[in-house]
C-alpha cells in the first residue's frame, strides 16, 4: 500500500504492529527541542531529558529574567558533561506579544455573555470587569466583531483558563468585549492573540535586542527563534543585528510563523531564514481549524525542498498534566514526521508539565515508529525532480551518497565537513540510515588570538533530521592527504562502533573531499 508519504509492506499483518521495536542507539532520526523551565531546569532533570532524546534546549524569554535563564544554562552545561550528550541552545524572543498585566496575580473569573474592558492603562488592577494590557495601540487596530483570545502562557487548549472575546465597541483607548465562554484566569502570565489583526509593534523589540546582546552573545547561542516573523525583512533586520554581536554572526535564525501575516509571506521568509518553526498554537487561532493541516503539509514540503530545517510545535499538549498523550496527539506526532518535520518542539509539556522526561521519551518513540514507514523512495524521487538539472556539484554528491547508501544497505553515512553544509544536503534527501557528520575544525584569527571553528557547526546539526555530529581532531583538515583522511575516518568508524550504529561486516558510505575532488566511497568493515 503506497500513499504519498507512507510505506507499508503488503500483505499487512496487523499482528506485526504489536511486535516490540528493536532498540536503537539513536532514539529517533527526528530531533526534539525541549523548553527548559521550572519543571526541567535542575541538573538531574536536564540530564534525564538529554538521555531521553532532547538535542536542543529552548530558553523562552517571554517569562523569567536573564539571571534565571543563566542559572538554567549553567545546569545544562553540567548535564552535558555528566551525560556526554551534545545539546544546542535556542533563544526564543518575545516579539510583539500582547500580555495581560496582572501585577497582584489575583484569580480572575470571567462569565459568558458578560462584558470586560481591555485597557492600556497598566496601573489599574486587573479584575473580571477590567484587563490592563501592555499595548497602547490595540483600540486603533480593532473594530466591532473582531475576536480576541486570552490564554495562559503556552496554553494547551484543553484547560479552562482560556477565553474567547468578541469586540463590541471601541471607546477611546479602551476596547469593550463580550465574553464568549466562562473561564478562570489563574497564573502570572496571560497572552492575548487578536485573530488576523496586524499589531503595529516591531518583530524584534528593544528588550529582545538587549537580551541578545547581554545574554545571547556571551553564551554564544546556536539558534535564534524569531517570534511572530511576518516578513522577510524581519529576518534581515535580526541577522544584521546579530552580525554586530561578534560570535553571533554564526547563529542560525529560525523564523517562527505564528499568524496569517507570516503565512502570506511564507515563501520570501523561507528564502531569508535558516529554518522555520510552525507555531501551531497561535496559528490554530488565526486560521480556520480546517485549514491548519493544509498549511502544515504545504509549509513542511516547501522547507524540505529548500533543504531547510522545519520544526513543528504543540503536538502533545495533554502530556502537560497526563502521562500518556491522547490518541489524536499520538497520531499528530506521527503525521508531523510523515509530513517531513525535522524536529518536534515541546513547550508547556517540558516547561511546566508534570512529566517532561516521559514526554520527550514518548514523542521520540512515536517519531521512531513513523520513520520506519516513511516512504523514502518516493520522497527521494520527488526531491531530485524538484531540484532539477543541472544539479550543483554539492547537491549531486549528496544525492549520490544517499542513493548509494540505500542501494548497498549501508548502516550509516559518514560525511566530513567544515561548514556543515554538505552534511545538511545529505540529510535533505532523508536517508533511512543515520548521517554521522564529522565536523573538522578550522583555525581562525582576529589578529589578537587564535581560535577554532567547528563547535557551532556541530551543535547546529542537532536540529536536522537524521544528522548526528561529532567534532574531529583539529589536526585533521577536511581537505587533506589520503593518510590523514584515513586516520580521521578510523576515529569516526570507532565512534560509530562504540555507539552501536556500526557492526562488523556492515557497509558504510563515506562522503569527503580529497584535494579539489568530492568523493563518495563504499567501505565494508572487517571483523
From TrEMBL:
Q: Which Pfam families match?
A: PK (PF00224), PK_C (PF02887)
Q: How does this chain assemble?
A: Homotetramer.
The protein's name: Pyruvate kinase
Cite the entry's keywords alphabetically.
ATP-binding, Glycolysis, Kinase, Magnesium, Metal-binding, Nucleotide-binding, Potassium, Pyruvate, Transferase
Name the InterPro entries for this protein: Pyr_Knase (IPR001697), Pyrv/PenolPyrv_kinase-like_dom (IPR015813), Pyrv_kinase-like_dom_sf (IPR040442), Pyrv_Knase-like_insert_dom_sf (IPR011037), Pyrv_Knase_brl (IPR015793), Pyrv_Knase_C (IPR015795), Pyrv_Knase_C_sf (IPR036918), Pyrv_Knase_insert_dom_sf (IPR015806)
Q: What is its EC number?
A: 2.7.1.40
The record's GO CC annotations read: cytosol
The family classification in the record reads: Belongs to the pyruvate kinase family.
Q: What are the protein's GO molecular function terms?
A: ATP binding; kinase activity; magnesium ion binding; potassium ion binding; pyruvate kinase activity
Coiled-coil intervals, chain numbering: none
Subcellular compartments:
Cytoplasm, Cytosol
Q: Does the keyword Metal-binding apply?
A: yes
Metal-binding is among the record's keywords: yes
Q: Which reaction does it catalyse?
A: pyruvate + ATP = phosphoenolpyruvate + ADP + H(+)
Class of enzymatic activity (EC top level): transferase
Domain Pyruvate kinase C-terminal, chain residue ranges per copy: 395-515
Task: Give, as in the UniProt entry, the pathway in which the protein acts.
Answer: Carbohydrate degradation; glycolysis; pyruvate from D-glyceraldehyde 3-phosphate: step 5/5
The superkingdom listed in its UniProt entry is Eukaryota
Indicate the segments forming the Pyruvate kinase barrel domain, all copies: 30-360
- Entry cofactors: Mg(2+); K(+)
Amino acid at each position: 500500500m503506497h500513499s504519498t508519504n507512507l510505506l507499508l509492506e503488503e500483505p499487512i499483518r496487523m499482528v506485526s504492529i504489536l511486535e516490540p521495536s528493536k532498540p536503537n542507539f539513536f532514539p529517533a532520526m527526528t530531533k526534539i527541542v525541549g523548553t527548559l523551565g521550572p519543571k526541567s531546569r535542575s541538573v538531574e532533570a536536564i540530564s534525564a531529558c538529554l538521555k531521553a532524546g532532547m538535542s536542543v534546549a529552548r530558553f523562552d524569554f517571554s517569562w523569567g529574567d536573564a539571571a534565571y535563564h543563566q542559572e538554567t544554562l549553567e545546569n545544562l552545561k553540567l548535564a552535558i558533561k555528566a551525560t556526554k550528550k551534545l545539546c544546542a541552545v535556542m533563544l526564543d524572543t518575545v516579539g510583539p506579544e500582547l500580555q495581560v498585566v496582572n501585577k497582584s496575580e489575583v484569580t480572575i473569573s470571567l462569565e459568558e455573555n458578560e462584558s470586560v474592558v481591555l485597557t492600556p492603562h497598566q496601573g489599574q488592577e486587573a479584575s473580571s470587569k477590567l484587563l490592563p494590557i501592555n499595548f497602547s495601540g490595540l483600540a486603533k487596530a480593532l473594530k466591532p466583531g473582531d475576536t480576541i483570545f486570552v490564554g495562559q502562557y503556552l496554553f494547551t487548549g484543553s484547560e479552562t483558563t482560556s477565553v474567547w472575546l468578541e469586540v463590541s465597541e471601541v471607546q477611546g483607548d479602551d476596547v469593550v468585549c463580550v465574553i464568549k465562554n466562562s473561564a478562570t484566569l489563574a497564573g502570572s502570565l496571560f497572552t492575548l492573540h487578536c485573530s488576523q489583526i496586524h499589531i503595529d509593534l516591531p518583530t524584534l523589540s528593544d528588550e529582545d535586542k538587549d537580551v541578545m546582546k547581554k545574554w545571547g552573545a556571551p553564551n554564544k547561542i546556536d539558534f535564534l527563534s524569531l517570534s511572530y516573523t511576518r516578513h522577510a525583512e524581519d529576518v534581515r533586520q535580526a541577522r544584521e543585528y546579530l552580525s554586530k554581536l561578534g560570535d553571533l554572526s554564526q547563529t542560525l535564525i529560525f523564523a517562527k510563523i505564528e499568524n496569517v501575516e507570516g503565512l502570506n509571506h511564507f515563501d520570501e521568509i523561507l528564502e531569508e531564514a535558516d529554518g522555520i518553526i510552525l507555531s501551531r498554537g497561535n496559528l490554530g487561532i488565526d486560521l480556520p481549524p480546517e485549514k491548519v493541516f493544509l498549511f502544515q503539509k504545504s509549509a513542511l514540503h516547501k522547507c524540505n525542498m529548500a533543504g531547510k530545517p522545519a520544526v513543528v510545535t504543540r503536538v502533545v499538549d495533554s502530556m502537560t498534566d497526563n502521562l500518556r498523550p491522547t490518541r489524536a496527539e499520538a497520531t499528530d506526532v506521527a503525521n508531523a514526521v510523515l509530513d517531513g518535520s525535522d524536529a518536534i518542539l515541546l513547550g508547556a509539556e517540558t516547561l511546566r508539565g508534570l512529566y517532561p522526561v516521559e514526554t520527550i521519551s514518548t514523542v521520540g518513540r512515536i517519531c521512531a515508529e513513523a520513520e520506519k514507514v516513511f516512504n523514502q523512495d518516493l520522497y527521494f524521487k520527488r526531491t531530485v525532480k524538484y531540484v532539477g538539472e543541472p544539479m550543483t556539484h554539492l547537491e549531486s554528491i549528496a544525492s549520490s551518497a544517499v542513493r548509494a547508501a540505500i542501494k548497498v544497505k549501508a548502516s550509516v553515512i559518514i560525511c566530513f565537513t567544515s561548514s556543515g553544509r554538505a552534511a545538511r544536503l545529505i540529510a535533505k534527501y532523508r536517508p533511512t540510515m543515520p548521517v554521522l557528520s564529522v565536523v573538522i575544525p578550522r583555525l581562525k584569527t582576529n589578529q589578537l588570538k587564535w581560535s577554532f571553528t567547528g563547535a557551532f557547526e556541530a551543535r547546529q546539526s542537532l536540529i536536522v533530521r537524521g544528522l548526528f555530529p561529532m567534532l574531529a581532531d583539529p589536526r585533521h583538515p577536511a581537505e587533506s592527504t589520503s593518510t590523514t583522511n584515513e586516520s580521521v575516518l578510523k576515529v569516526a568508524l570507532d565512534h560509530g562502533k562504540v555507539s552501536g550504529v556500526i557492526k562488523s561486516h556492515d557497509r558504510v558510505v563515506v562522503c569527503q573531499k580529497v584535494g579539489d575532488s568530492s568523493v563518495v566511497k563504499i567501505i565494508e568493515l572487517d571483523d
